[in-house]
Specification:
Blueprint (H helix, E strand, L loop, with lengths): L15 H20 L1 H39 L18 H12 L1 H17 L10 H15 L1 H20 L11 H4 L6 H37 L5 H20 L2 H26 L2 H17 L1 H5 L10 H26 L6 H33 L4 H7 L4 H8 L4 H33 L8 H21 L1 H31 L19 E3 L6 E3 H10 L5
Antiparallel strand pairs: 1-2
């Protein structure tokens, strides 16, 4: 028996101990954020400030190694290992698979930062001495690709691959703790495993809360641009509540129907917006600048991967790389588990290509179009994007659309972008709530509906508390702090996966040996000496009549 689940009462279908401990932790955090908002915000910010010097190299090293590990899995000796039985076929077609994993992964975040990050780094980054110049624009795009590209998706893909491998190939529960089984055996399903799952749930909840908080603030700005609604915390809380109700309804309806339809709608809406920006914007510049910046990104990938800001002053590294890697690690349990659930039947090679490479290319195009449009307006147009971002970072996207000066089409695009933010928030909340309840249910892929609803409410309340306590800055500090203990779990998962994969030395695939070869050395019965089996057989053929 893998896990202990209650069969009756309030905790029916879930592990009572992990659920109670996690609930108490969340309740304590919400009370602290509500009753002592100032001291709580100060404590979280102070903790991050103290830890930043350590995190500036620790997170960098961990994420860089994870990318190299994933590339090796995709092209190395285990590339034909299947996430399931050897003859199993993928559950979802490729298009649905890609749209669902991208919508649950970076959909909300990339909408928020696609313009804000290039414009903010256009003004200040450690790789140029001339802020606001063409050189600074290329560096800003390169850094945006870096934070939303291969490294970020290596974290998502690693967690997803580990979960899918142990669940679908090894027949173990769909929980983070299953990856520890090769190291600690049955203890992975005891108190140690429960502690690991609790850390994963806490990181997940803070990752979702950060995502919802950023997205809701931006959606509030979009509603203001389109309908003239005033920006306020009260309106943001209302938006969160409405979105979580919709999210819960779609989640209860099932992944295959609710999530697949919304994810595919997100994809087509995003494609429509991208095509409109390419057509109505500075087309030649957008294509050329994206290609140039992506080339610079690939050329400097290794140096960026190990950049620690060691010889420069300021907080750039902690404000950007540490935050993004921490946010991605906190996101990784829920994004990873959701991707794992929809990736059954794929080989490691297909998985790495789909989860590591394709989303990176999509992110590059998206940032290249939106961020490139904003930079073009600053370099060659009327500008104004820098001032808008410095005043309110949530205005970045809508100020860019307004600056394109395309009349009613710009208003329509703003409305579509606002709708996109909402639908991406729903898919992210869906994935997060499902993962939290799946972990608490000991890996049950269909956790009890009442607990899905309960944790949807908890996520809504926590997001509201963090917004009330400190807004964007507190959200960033909280997610970096929450990711730190889970980073240790990631390292343990990596070791456990390597041990388990050792049994897959001869995986099935075209031209690949299915079983270990026989011992090539034998003892020649004629001579009594050790020799190659081939040479012994050849000698016997040359001397007929020998037994």
């Amino acid at each position: 028996m893998f896990t202990v689940r209650a069969v009756r009462g309030l905790f029916k279908g879930v592990n009572p101990r992990t659920t109670i401990i996690t609930s108490i932790l969340m309740l304590a955090i919400m009370l602290l954020g509500t009753l002592w908002a100032g001291p709580t915000a100060h404590a979280i910010s102070t903790f991050r400030s103290i830890m930043n010097p350590f995190l500036e190299w620790y997170y960098v090293l961990l994420v860089a190694f994870m990318l190299l590990f994933m590339i090796w899995l995709g092209v190395g000796r285990y590339k034909n290992v299947r996430l399931g039985d050897d003859r199993e076929v993928p559950e979802f077609r490729f298009f649905s698979w890609i749209t669902m994993l991208f919508a649950a992964g970076t959909g909300v975040g990339i909408l928020f930062w696609a313009v804000a990050q290039p414009i903010m780094q256009f003004q200040d980054n450690p790789f140029t001495d001339d802020p606001g110049s063409a050189q600074a624009a290329t560096a800003a795009m390169q850094l945006s690709f870096f934070h939303w590209g291969l490294h970020a998706w290596s974290i998502f893909s690693f967690v997803a691959l580990v979960l899918a491998y142990f669940a679908f190939r090894k027949g173990q529960p769909l929980t983070i703790s299953s990856a520890l089984h090769p190291m600690i055996g049955k203890h992975a399903y005891g108190r140690v495993g429960e502690l690991v799952d609790i850390l994963a749930v806490v990181a997940t909840i803070f990752g979702i809360a950060t995502t919802l908080g950023l997205g809701v603030q931006q959606m509030n700005t979009g509603l203001g641009e389109v309908f003239g609604l005033e920006s306020s915390v009260r309106l943001q809380l209302f938006i969160i509540a409405v979105l979580m109700v919709i999210s819960t309804v779609t989640l209860v309806s099932g992944v295959e129907r609710g999530m697949r339809l919304i994810s595919e709608a997100n994809f087509w809406l995003s494609l429509t917006v991208a095509a409109a920006i390419l057509f109505f914007g500075p087309t030649q510049y957008l294509i050329a600048s994206t290609l140039e910046a992506f080339g610079v990104y690939l050329q400097n990938l290794l140096s960026l991967a190990f950049y620690t800001h060691a010889n420069q002053d300021g907080n750039w590294q902690s404000d950007w790389t540490v935050f993004f890697w921490g946010w991605t690690m906190a996101w990784s349990p829920f994004v990873g588990m959701f991707i794992a659930r929809i990736s059954r039947g794929r080989t490691l090679r297909e998985f790495v290509l789909g989860v590591l490479v394709v989303p990176t290319l999509i992110s590059t195009v998206w940032i290249g179009l939106l961020g490139g449009s904003a930079l073009y307006q600053e370099l060659f147009g009327n500008g104004g994007i820098v001032e808008a971002v410095n005043e309110d970072v949530t205005m970045a996207l809508f100020a860019t659309l307004e600056g394109m000066d395309i009349g009613i089409i710009g208003v329509i695009l703003s409305a579509v972008m606002t709708l996109l933010i909402g639908t991406y928030l729903i898919t992210s909340a869906n994935a997060g709530t499902l993962v939290v309840t799946t972990i608490l249910a000991g890996g049950d892929a269909n956790p009890p509906k009442q607990h899905r609803i309960l944790w949807g409410v908890v996520l809504t309340l926590l997001t509201g508390v963090l917004l009330l306590a400190g807004g964007l800055e507190l959200l960033q500090s909280a997610v970096v702090a929450a990711a730190l203990p889970f980073s240790v779990v990631l390292m343990l998962m990596l070791v456990g996966t390597m041990r388990a994969l050792h049994e897959e030395r001869f995986a099935e695939g075209p031209g690949v040996r299915r079983e270990a070869p026989h011992e090539p050395w034998v003892v020649d019965q004629d001579t009594g000496k050790r020799a190659l089996a081939y040479d012994v057989e050849r000698g016997r053929e040359a001397a007929p009549g020998k037994d």
